[in-house]
Write a structure and sequence with these properties.
There is one protein chain. By secondary structure, the protein is an alpha/beta fold. Strand 4, helix 4 and strand 5 form a beta-alpha-beta unit. The chain is elongated, with a radius of gyration of 21 Å.
């Protein structure tokens, strides 16, 4: 039945993205005949989507309730509305998930959250908050922060108070560089680069050797970056601290892989 419905009106999905899976899922959903509108946070984030046959790309962070509500209501007014809103934002972007699930409930808009599966933690210390670094002896240790830029100020301040020499790997975009320059991290102590496309992480390994890094702090994001740091730290026999992922938001429809997403989409009653 669903295939017949799709052929007649091609249901429209709104994907809020912020992870590598966004592009992969969008591509697969397009192949299956869905119409897709994608939200990305920056111009740079558009790049993977440029070759896809999308309805629309919305650029910029969704600031508040009104903005989200108006995207959904405008789509209802001008077309048939969204068949479903799919949240593929980063596991640490908890505010947007809470906000969008709330608006979708109010507007009776079907909503699915994709939660990355949690990989096993091998040879890493899990910390609930950066202050937990105080449980470890960081005095005179060289610590590399491979975190989202919004965590840098707090993490670098705590690590410095604990007597560590602080270094950072910063994503190559103007906002990240600006925010890093506003922290207490020395200009000579941060490298501007995007995570390695290669699974070997040669650039990251070179940084560790150059700076004589004793340990890395990153987020338990469940993505390729976390896996990469687990491999690197394990092979180079240095410490790894993972900032634990925020707990799941209660009472929202969440899936942890593409097949479950498709199953959930098919079970939405029109």
């Amino acid at each position: 039945i669903l295939m017949d419905i799709r052929k007649k009106c091609q249901p429209h999905l709104w994907l809020l993205t912020g992870t590598g899976e966004g592009h992969v899922f969008a591509k697969s959903l397009l192949k299956e005949g869905w119409k897709i509108t994608v939200s990305v946070v920056s111009n740079r984030a558009i790049i993977p989507y440029e070759q896809l046959n999308l309805e629309k790309i919305l650029i910029g962070a969704l600031i508040g309730e009104e903005e989200i509500r108006s995207v959904i209501l405008n789509e209802r007014k001008n077309h048939n509305g969204f068949y479903c809103v799919i949240d593929l934002t980063h596991p640490f972007a908890t505010k947007i998930t809470a906000l969008i699930s709330k608006i979708c409930k109010e507007l009776d808009q079907p909503f699915i959250r994709y939660e990355r599966p949690m990989p096993d933690i091998l040879n890493a210390f899990l910390i609930k908050r950066f202050s937990n670094l105080g449980d470890y002896n960081l005095k005179n240790k060289s610590i590399l922060l491979a975190l989202g830029v919004r965590h840098l100020r707090e993490a670098s301040s705590i690590a410095k108070k604990l007597g560590a020499n602080v270094f950072a790997r910063v994503l190559a975009n103007p906002e990240s560089i600006k925010l890093t320059l506003s922290t207490s991290i020395l200009k000579t102590n941060f490298a501007v680069l995007n995570p390695s496309a290669s699974t070997e992480g040669e650039i990251e390994k070179a940084l560790i050797r150059r700076w004589g890094i004793d340990g890395v702090v990153c987020r338990q994001s469940g993505g390729t970056t976390e896996k990469l740091w687990q491999q690197i730290c394990s092979s180079m026999k240095i410490d790894l601290w993972l900032l634990s992922r925020p707990s799941r938001i209660e009472n929202i429809n969440s899936v942890d892989n593409y097949d479950k997403l498709i199953y959930s989409l098919k079970s939405i009653s029109m």
